[in-house]
Model the fold of this input.
Amino acid sequence: MKRPSFQFYPGDWLNDAGLRLCSIGARGLWIEMLCLMHQGTNYGFLMVNHAPILPLNLARISGATLVEVEGWLVELEGAGVFSRDDSGCIFSRRMISDEKVRAARAAGGILGGNPALKGLKKVDDKVNHKPNLKPTPSSSSASSSSSSNKTPKGAPAGFDEFWSAYPRKDAKPNAMKAFAKVKAPLEVLLSAIAKQKVSEKWVKDGGQYIPMPATWLNGERWNDLVAIVSAGAVTTVPSKQERDPELIRREQDSKNAAPPSPETLERIARIKQGATA
Done:
């Protein structure tokens, strides 16, 4: 029998760094996918009748275009929100983990208690307890699970947020060293990553052209211009707000210029009078 609900923690949804970097469209699609995975034949997998649900199917279900759905999927996968099995089928790590815990607890209830305690000897009418089953973490089924690639001790402040947001997870120690040298604010890095994750270059060929994290940091690539793919159109935008240096120079020259002399003002007035005569 299908269960009518699954665990969802709004606080974890709102505080998930990777998910928050995704667009509102991508987050809306993820909710739709979670509901489908809850109703699917293999719990936690994006499947129906044991067959994966393809982007074209998601487009029809959600009412979006195929281009929009494919772009949102790139955002979500780049942020580490979902994973794929060997066949390429999308699944939610959190939902599968929660389901294992639920099944273990249900089995314990059927047997009249925790199955891990069956057969244990009693000492003074007390059971020698083994460690408890791992409790369900206080996290949303929508949230991505923490990476097994733990951050080393002494990581610079803000590195965890950067690592969670950056889509390529290679050479973490090198990335941490490069991050420690960066002077730009964390918000600038995260904003640039969010834009570049959906750029034409990073999306191409499954993201194989995404630079190594340390390379991106050492090269100050958050300043790159990126070509954003949106609804079939490609638009080039700066990674951060930039102004034309020539315009800045002219504004500064204007501010520093001395005011016109009285003689100059008088000559201008005479010229205006002659023009109107």
Observations:
- The chain has three domains: 1-146, 151-243, 245-276.
- Residues 45 and 224 are 37 Å apart (CA to CA).
- Residues 245-276 form one domain.
